[in-house]
């Protein structure tokens, strides 16, 4: 059976890192049909829209999407609906990619890369499960309006709407509990239920779904405290489940604990195993085209793609072992370089992973 993969390189370093991931996928000896299409600012330049209909339908018709990164300062002055970020938001919404899995793992070989003390982060292995298609990100109404009454009457006001429907909370709760079941069986739900109605509702549903998973220990934490605990004692966490906005913020924080955001993959899944796989880092336009970006997060995203969308666990493990092997050999791109290691370019790192695969 041929598996269809849409490859959307995007902007900045996106093309050079996805190229390496494609090479790795191509070397597995699987029957993969990879089709490349523009997205983000690159698509805007070509077609006047960050998510052209051809790119969207290619993605929708594929088993999985391998995504690079979008965004560049040069598009910051465009109207919101034309900005590169709208491509990723549009793909999430159109494909129903509600479950975002963001692992934050500290590789033993990179223990010194973190800005935190080694004893705080060594062995770190946490998984953030972020709801990705609801919350204030997509809530309506939103916009700018004129205040009718009260203190600010007559003034313009910017506003967004936070809401979660019960089914939205339930389905992400199940993803969180099932992920925890396969790990240390501890799930921490992060909310702001001391202030927000949406969060109180979220918490109530989490508690209800927990009855179906008696072997998983559910705890709750306010998001401000979670932000603090993540830097104080991150190893206390196993799986975190949270809403779209809090998950956006906490997943960047968690990624940086490892000091090597260039190593972290992510998966965004819908209910039918279709997924979009992308590195956790952004498009880094400042180093684009210089062959110095770290392709490993994208290569590891390809491993997640094999695991979650193609049910090819063995092949996923092969890639992950190859990445561990290049680190073990002391091979590094600039972002994770330390004394005594060998500095490689993006493409040379791709070569090294390919060699380790064989
Ligand atoms: C992320 C990014 C996106 C988000 C942006 C690019 C829209 O920050 O994937 O975390 O806010 O979800
Ligand atoms: Mg983010």
TrEMBL record:
Gene3D superfamilies: Isopropylmalate Dehydrogenase. The record marks 137, 192 as: Important for catalysis. It is an enzyme of class 1 (oxidoreductase). NAD(+) binds at residues 282-294. Mg(2+) binds at residues 224, 248, 252. Keywords: Amino-acid biosynthesis, Branched-chain amino acid biosynthesis, Cytoplasm, Leucine biosynthesis, Magnesium, Manganese, Metal-binding, NAD, Oxidoreductase. This is 3-isopropylmalate dehydrogenase.
């Amino acid at each position: 059976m041929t598996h269809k993969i849409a490859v959307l390189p995007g902007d900045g370093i996106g093309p050079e890192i996805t190229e390496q991931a494609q090479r790795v996928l191509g070397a597995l000896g699987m029957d993969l049909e990879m089709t490349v299409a523009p997205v983000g600012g690159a698509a805007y330049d070509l077609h006047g829209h960050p998510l052209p209909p051809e790119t969207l339908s290619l993605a929708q018709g594929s088993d999985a999407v391998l995504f690079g990164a979008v965004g560049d300062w040069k598009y910051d002055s465009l109207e919101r609906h034309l900005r590169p970020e709208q491509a990723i938001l549009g793909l999430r919404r159109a494909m129903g990619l509600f479950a975002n899995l963001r692992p934050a793992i500290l590789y033993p070989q990179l223990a010194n890369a973190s800005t935190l003390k080694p004893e705080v982060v060594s062995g770190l292995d946490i998984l953030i499960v972020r709801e990705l298609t609801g919350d204030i990100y997509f809530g309506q109404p939103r916009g700018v309006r004129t205040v009718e009454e009260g203190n600010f009457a007559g003034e313009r006001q910017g506003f967004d709407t936070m809401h979660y429907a019960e089914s939205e909370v339930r389905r992400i709760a199940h993803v969180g509990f099932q992920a925890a079941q396969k790990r240390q069986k501890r799930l921490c739900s992060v909310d702001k239920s001391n202030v927000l109605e949406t969060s109180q509702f979220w918490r109530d549903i989490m508690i209800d779904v927990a009855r179906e998973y008696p072997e998983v220990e559910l705890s709750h934490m306010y998001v401000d405290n979670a932000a603090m605990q993540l830097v104080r004692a991150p190893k206390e966490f196993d799986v975190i489940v949270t809403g779209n906005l809090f998950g956006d913020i906490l997943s960047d924080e968690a990624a940086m604990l490892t000091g090597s955001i260039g190593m972290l993959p992510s998966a965004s899944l819908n209910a039918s195993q279709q997924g979009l796989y992308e590195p956790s880092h952004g498009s880094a336009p400042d180093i684009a085209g210089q062959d110095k970006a770290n392709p490993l997060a994208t290569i590891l995203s390809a491993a997640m793609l094999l695991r979650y969308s193609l049910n090819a666990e063995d092949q996923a493990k092969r890639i992950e072992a190859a990445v561990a092997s290049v680190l073990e050999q002391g091979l590094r791109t600039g972002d994770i370089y330390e004394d005594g290691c060998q500095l490689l370019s993006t493409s040379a790192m791709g070569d090294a992973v390919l060699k380790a695969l064989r």
